Amino acid sequence: MRFDHEINFYTEESKHYNPLTSQTDGGSKLVASMMGNVTDVGADRTVRLLGSITQGVKIIRIVEPIEKQWAYLTIDDGPTKYRMRTTTVPLKNVSILVGEDVGKT
Hints:
Distance between the termini: 33 Å
Oligomer: single chain
Radius of gyration: 15 Å
Order of helices and strands: EEEEHEEEE
Strand content: over 45%
Largest sheet: 6 strands, antiparallel
Strand order of the largest sheet: 6-1-4-5-8-7
CATH superfamily: Bacteriophage SPP1 head-tail adaptor protein
């Protein structure tokens, strides 16, 4: 298994609503970056895992678990944000099932 994609984990803890400007202040902060293996989940497996066909579902495999809290991740600094759906920690690697972030900025 090749760990050939850069996975960046971000937190949104510093974001907050400013009632004076009616805007959201603060931004995302990078909390961890590591190499990982990225695999698309097929339509039949998506139905078995999630109960419906969902676009943009991927399995991310990394060597070490993430100790810090994170809100979303990006793959290879792409514009698409992925949110965690579920995670497993078997004996060797950590597997994170993520889906495309829809509707949040």
